Amino acid sequence: MTRLEVRDVTVRFGGVTAVNEATIAADAGHVTALIGPNGAGKTTLFNVITGLQKPTAGRVFLDGHDITHTPTHRRARHGIARTFQRLEAFGSLTVEENIRVAADAIRSKNAKPAQVTRELIRRIGLERYAGVRADAVPTGVARLVELARALAIDPALLLLDEPSSGLSQAETAAFGELLRDLAAQGRAVLIVEHDMPLIMRVSDRIHVLDRGVLIASGTPGEVQADPAVRKAYLGEDEPPSDPNPTMAMPAVVEMDEETFVATYAGTHAAPPTRVAEPAAETETETESEPEPESEAESEAVPESEEPPPSPDGAGPRSGGWF
User: Fold this and answer.
1) φ, ψ of residue 171 in degrees (nearest 5)
2) Which among 103, 175, 195, 272 could bridge 113 via Cys, Cβ 3.0 to 4.6 Å?
3) Pairwise CA distance, residues 85 & 72, whole Å
4) Are strands 80-82 and 31-35 parallel, antiparallel or unpaired?
């Protein structure tokens, strides 16, 4: 059963097209991945699905109902929950209180919000942090707090934006098993993630965006073998000789100015700091005839000063989905 359908969605910011006629779907009982290089338009598309960004064109359907113009809070009540690329926990509240806020918000579905909160803390493995303020826990734990808070409304459609960021290898493996369990309960899970081993292991279907354009959709095996995907995502023209390749993000991703603007305009993410690489130092040896001591006076060459580092982006804000 198709839970979510995004049909021919386009998003423009001035003269920049962030998403261009993208069509994707997410089925109940399946994990669907949305991948692509930085600046592909993944988070922008998430914002359209959740109502945080109005599309320039196109429509969004949930269980066959058009929700393109439905407000964000009503989409949550209809069963859509998400996490964010940047942490959006309530920093002044404890881990338990963050989850309880969501459970209380949907009292019509949660007859016992306190019990729902306790069960989620146990299921996600947050017992040791339950009484700790959310702004004092490690990043990986905060990601799990956001997941538990999203699950507190018992969503039919769960959207996760880079949820494994900050998790250890063991935590990532356990997180992958949790995703499969959540989908097995009948939820549609749509995930944006750069951890390709995780995506290839847990996904039933993958959609690939490149500069706002959907270039491929299929199973993990079909996507890995697609020449257009390998060229756009990894810069490779030929499929690998290994019959079971593992895709991985390159260490550095170049973005032109249009892609840079399209990625960060209208989203929660702050632009990354751009730091220029220092120029290579060269030493030039010159030979000169010695001058008489009475006339010799060397001029000191001032050392070049390094430019001050650019300030970091703004820190995480309190608030979020609810």
Assistant:
1) -65, -35
2) 103
3) 18
4) unpaired
| Run of H or E including 281 | none
Q: What residue type is assigned to position 290 of the chain?
A: P
| Distant-in-sequence, close-in-space partners of 307: CB < 8 Å, separation ≥ 6 | 276
Residue where the block lists tokens 């881990």: 95
Local structure of residue 133 (DSSP, 8 states): B
How far is Cα 113 from Cα 236, in angstroms, rounded to an integer? 50
pLDDT digits (tens, 9 = 90+) for 166-193: 888 988 999 999 999 999 999 999 999 9
Task: Provide the sign of the torsion angle of the four alpha carbons 148, 150, 155, 156, taken in this order.
Answer: negative
Amino acid in position 216: A
- Judged by DSSP in three states, 249 sits in coil
Torsion angle in degrees (nearest 10) through CA of 200, 184, 103, 119: -100
Q: How many CB atoms lie within 10 A of CB 158?
A: 27
> What are the structure tokens assigned to 270, written together?
């702050």
Q: pLDDT for 9-21, tens place per residue?
A: 999 999 999 999 9
What is the torsional sign of CA 131, 133, 138, 142?
positive
